[in-house]
Amino acid sequence: MPELPEVEALADFLRRRAVSHEVKRVDVASITALKTFDPPPTALHGRRITAVDRHGKFLDLDADGTHLIFHLARAGWLRWNDKLAATPLRPGKHPLALRLALDDGSGFDLSEAGTKKRLAVYVVSDPAQVPGIAGLGPDPLAESFTEAAFAAVLSGRRTQIKGLLRDQKLIAGIGNAYSDEILHAARMSPFKLADSLTDTDVSVLYEAMVDTLRTAVAASSGSAAKDLKAHKHDSLRVHGRAGQPCPVCGDTIAEVSFADSALQYCPTCQTGGRKLADRRMSRLLK
């Protein structure tokens, strides 16, 4: 799933490629992906893209006040093409959900692999009309999201820190992969309760979060859309690396599997050498 760094890199890519261009057409191939009906996608036709923004994991193309907003979900992606096919995209049994064509012949497709279709597209006059954006927590890289603001989010919550970092209503943009990376950098168990953190723990976790995300954003900056997935995979130190040596201490990276996801961590760096039980209600094994 694209997370804050990749979505920011896609936003930067679209700023360089799409801003100032006029929307020639929008083809919707998957009606289930389109979550709004008024204004219709055709309202974008002939409008000039004036800005591209990011809201958590949502991408927002502002076309003269009408916004095309989309969330790529777990298996969605944006594929840019300098020369799109002139033939409009038609519904069918293919992974393509939407195509946006610009006045110079370039544009992009939104595609989604797999059978669980969660990619979501909205056409709205105000980003706040998208429920997922209206309910977003603060952006972890915003100047206003200070260590004190982070401490306030954590305060009094008997929630495992892994889940809290991923909760979009509390902090926007962090998903499964970067929460693993942040906790590894902080040398903290994913199952540690938020309200058990000391002031020092909070400070360490905050610095790990900001540093991890800023580093990932900087590393992805300037990359082409097609290269971002591979770049993310290659840059991760623990997520998706179960069975491999920890780059910090050399211990074997371990995994906890759930029904539809998994987390990875280093026992030596994060849990005092102890293994976490591999079940949904995991606790440290004695």
Automatic annotation (TrEMBL):
<keyword id="KW-0863">Zinc-finger</keyword>
<keyword id="KW-0378">Hydrolase</keyword>
<protein>
    <submittedName>
        <fullName>DNA-formamidopyrimidine glycosylase</fullName>
        <ecNumber>3.2.2.23</ecNumber>
    </submittedName>
</protein>
<dbReference type="GO" id="GO:0003906">
    <property type="term" value="F:DNA-(apurinic or apyrimidinic site) endonuclease activity"/>
</dbReference>
<feature type="domain" description="Formamidopyrimidine-DNA glycosylase catalytic">
    <location>
        <begin position="2"/>
        <end position="93"/>
    </location>
</feature>
<dbReference type="InterPro" id="IPR012319">
    <property type="entry name" value="FPG_cat"/>
</dbReference>
<keyword id="KW-0238">DNA-binding</keyword>
<keyword id="KW-0479">Metal-binding</keyword>
<dbReference type="InterPro" id="IPR015886">
    <property type="entry name" value="H2TH_FPG"/>
</dbReference>
<feature type="domain" description="FPG-type">
    <location>
        <begin position="237"/>
        <end position="271"/>
    </location>
</feature>
<keyword id="KW-0511">Multifunctional enzyme</keyword>
<dbReference type="GO" id="GO:0006284">
    <property type="term" value="P:base-excision repair"/>
</dbReference>
<dbReference type="InterPro" id="IPR010979">
    <property type="entry name" value="Ribosomal_uS13-like_H2TH"/>
</dbReference>
<dbReference type="Pfam" id="PF06827">
    <property type="entry name" value="zf-FPG_IleRS"/>
</dbReference>
<dbReference type="GO" id="GO:0008270">
    <property type="term" value="F:zinc ion binding"/>
</dbReference>
<keyword id="KW-0456">Lyase</keyword>
<dbReference type="InterPro" id="IPR010663">
    <property type="entry name" value="Znf_FPG/IleRS"/>
</dbReference>
<dbReference type="Pfam" id="PF06831">
    <property type="entry name" value="H2TH"/>
</dbReference>
<dbReference type="InterPro" id="IPR000214">
    <property type="entry name" value="Znf_DNA_glyclase/AP_lyase"/>
</dbReference>
<dbReference type="InterPro" id="IPR035937">
    <property type="entry name" value="FPG_N"/>
</dbReference>
<keyword id="KW-0862">Zinc</keyword>
<comment type="similarity">
    <text>Belongs to the FPG family.</text>
</comment>
<dbReference type="GO" id="GO:0003684">
    <property type="term" value="F:damaged DNA binding"/>
</dbReference>
<keyword id="KW-0326">Glycosidase</keyword>
<keyword id="KW-0234">DNA repair</keyword>
<dbReference type="GO" id="GO:0016829">
    <property type="term" value="F:lyase activity"/>
</dbReference>
<dbReference type="Pfam" id="PF01149">
    <property type="entry name" value="Fapy_DNA_glyco"/>
</dbReference>
<keyword id="KW-0227">DNA damage</keyword>
<dbReference type="GO" id="GO:0034039">
    <property type="term" value="F:8-oxo-7,8-dihydroguanine DNA N-glycosylase activity"/>
</dbReference>
